[in-house]
Structure formats: C-alpha cells, structure tokens
Design a protein that fits this description.
Elements: E1 3-8, E2 14-18, E3 38-41
Antiparallel strand pairs: 1-2, 1-3
Organism: Desulfopila aestuarii DSM 18488
InterPro entries: Regulatory_FmdB_Zinc_ribbon
Protein name: Putative regulatory protein, FmdB family
Length: about 70
C-alpha cells in the first residue's frame, strides 16, 4: 500500500498515512483534531534529485544512452 501525505483543512497539520490506492482520501481523519476535512498533498520527497545528481550523467554506464551525451 502506498504512503500518502495529507493536510487537514481545519487545523492545517500535515500527516502521512498508508492507505489502499482506491481509498486514498476516503475515511481518513486528522490524527490531531479528528476532522475529516482533509486534502491529499503532493509529496516532494519522491521528486527530488540528490545533490550529486546531474541530468548529463544519467545512464552514463549504458551504451544505449551514449548517443544522448
């Protein structure tokens, strides 16, 4: 099951919860205030590159990608 991040629209707290994909926002309540007024937020952690990463070196060891360097 995936881990989703949520924000409570009542108390503005953010929290994570593991839920089935089909039930991502259904039946989720805020652990701080118990409100059901929540929204799913985009997780920044899955979109970051490490500080040593570079697009020009992606796939550097792969001969099929050598034509793109």
């Amino acid at each position: 099951m995936p881990l989703y991040e949520f924000e409570c629209l009542e108390c503005n707290s953010q929290f994570e919860k593991i839920v089935p994909i089909a039930d991502a926002a259904r039946d989720v309540t805020c652990p701080k205030c118990s409100s059901s007024k929540i929204k799913k937020v985009i997780s920044a952690g899955s979109h970051r590159l490490s500080s040593g990463s570079s697009l020009s070196t992606a796939g550097a060891g792969c001969p099929a990608n050598s034509r793109f360097r």
